[in-house]
Amino acid sequence: MRKIISLFLCALIIFSCAVVSFAQDNEEELNIAVASDLHYNLPREELEHTIDDEIYWYANRRAAMEDESGYIIDEFLNQCAEDDSVDCVFISGDLADNGRVIREEHENVAAKLKAFEEKTGKSVFVTNGNHDTGAAESDFRNDDFREVYADFGFNEAIATATDALSYTADLNDKYRLIVADSCDPTVSTEDGLTSKRVNWICDQATQAHKDGKYPILMMHHNLLEHMPAQRVLSHNFIVRNHRLTAEKLADSGIKAVFTGHEHGSDVTSYTSARGNVITDFSTTSLTMFPLAYRYVSFAENVINYESRSIDTIDTDALTSAVSGYTDEHISLINSDLSDYSKNFFKTSIEYRLSLALTPEKLGIATDKFYSDIVYTAVNGLTDILEKPLYGENSVSELASEYNIEIPESDYENGWDLVSEIVSYHYSGNEPFALDSTEVVMILRIADLILLDVLSSVNDKTFLKLANDIISNFGTDSVCKDFSKAAAKTLGPVTAGEYFIIAVASPILYGLAYDSDGIDDNNGSIDGYGVNNNSENIKNNISGFFERIKLYISFFLTYILKIFRIG
Question: Is the same domain home to 294 and 395?
Fold first, then answer.
């Protein structure tokens, strides 16, 4: 009996030690708040309303709440000050919107950060973004940035790079921050993460491990793709040779990197050939929808992260500084700042795209032989996006002439639909699967644009003379009539158009639906003390084949339709 009791007590002691050890391994060791792309602006003295009766049309093409930016930053710092668990604050670039030319913007941001540090005793660490410094022609250069933000990383640096604003600093006795200058010294948005700078990061990571520290990386440009084909479609937002760079950084022992620049909330991981995983936490702009930042907790076995938002600002201080806000503005801001910022964002997206979708912005000169084609195509596209989706003279009515059915929804027009999908991309966790109403509508409107607009282009070129003659007898648009007749017989799109959609659908799918299995806003990844390399390699291979299968399925779906109508 005594032996049984002794064995039981030994087992209990061993179990208790294991539980204590596990609890210690998962005890929070470092808690940080991460904000990016503050884009602080000196507020205007008065709002400039560009269109009457449109409350959000003081919005700008960047979709950033510029006049409110200082008060949003204030609230972010207030939240960090009131949360005793926050140990320090990271800001991954673009602190000032006009930072290359207006020093006062930087000085105002630095004053806010200094007041926060003095009040709380918590440290702030910053890196430069493409809006912050410039080359020789700029009024604010690297030396100026280092001077103004000396108290926010540079003075604590234990190592610095000679050719850039890169530095390292200890966060506590277990973690070290590596801040990398990823900006090009001459080209505004271009990434400047040269091989020399990458090697410097790897050297610093190696040294951190030698010193018994876990290295955390922060830089402005994205390390990994946060949207489909980002390196092709938006190459200025991601570092060059991003897979090779990620491979080197992962194998140097960096597990977490915090970036910004793209203004989207997205978390993406990369697994090296050796099974080392690096995760890029891209953080959205603090001063645009969804007005969010990250809270990240580091422990030995797990890194937990969550999204936090700015839900209120000091509107009394705002209206004292900036005139022109109506009672409706202030009421909407005070009642639901998130909803206000989203409508501001959607209006800005429409404003931005409508400005961009003009022949002039596309660089098409009127004396070019193809100018008529482009003008017709662009005008046709914007006309369809501006039409109401339902009712008289609507997209649905036009689509029915081509035998295309637009699903029922609460969206008012094409702009409303497009800006809604874009807003989810920026806020993270895109919910629109390929069979969702939103994606089906986008694809069918794309069908309609291809048919209706392309037929208009044909009118302008091959059948222009015929149309001019026949129009004298009261009949217009020969090619459109042919297209409508063909659609009733062969289906809504032609073989060539199916091919275009087959290629475009995976990109659209990636923009509308986040299928990588990593939550963009709230989740966890393995901590620095975890080594599952063999399992990581297995999952990496499996994920690669899943992506290939997905693309093939999209392509074959539409190719088979081609054969059915061919």
Answer: no
Q: Would residue 554 count as lying in a domain? A: yes
Would 349 be classed as within a structural domain?
Answer: no
Max CA-CA distance within the chain? 112
Instruction: Please give the structure tokens belonging to residue 367.
Output: 């004396």
Does residue 251 lie in a domain region?
Answer: yes
Helix (H, G, I), strand (E, B) or coil at 123: strand
Residue 58, phi then psi, degrees to nearest 5: -90, 5
- pLDDT tens digit sequence for 142-171: 999 999 999 999 999 999 998 899 999 999
What does DSSP say about strands 523-526 and 123-127: parallel, antiparallel, or unpaired? unpaired
Q: How many CA atoms lie within 13 A of 149 on its CB side?
A: 34
- CA-wise closest residue to 411 among 385, 450, 429, 381: 385
* Number of folded domains that form the chain: 2
Helix 337-356 with 414-427: angle, nearest 10 deg? 120
Determine the 3-state secondary structure of 470 from DSSP: helix
Residues 6+ apart with CB under 8 A from 137: none
Closest to 520 measured CA to CA, from 282, 348, 183, 337: 282
Helix, strand, or coil (residue 171): coil
Tokens of 242: 């991003």
Q: Say if residue 402 is in the same domain as residue 370.
A: yes
In this structure, the answer to whether residues 321 and 373 fall within a common structural domain is no
User: What pTM, to 2 d.p., does this model score?
Assistant: 0.82
| Domain interval for residue 431 | 357-565
Residue 426 and residue 488 in one domain: yes
Whether 351 is in a domain gets the answer no
DSSP for 327-392?
HHHHHHHHH-HHHHHHHHHHHHHHHHHHHHSSTTTTT--TTSTTHHHHHHHHHHHHHHHHSBSSST
Residue-wise pLDDT for 399-448, tens only, equals: 898 888 899 999 999 889 988 988 988 898 788 876 788 878 887 887 78
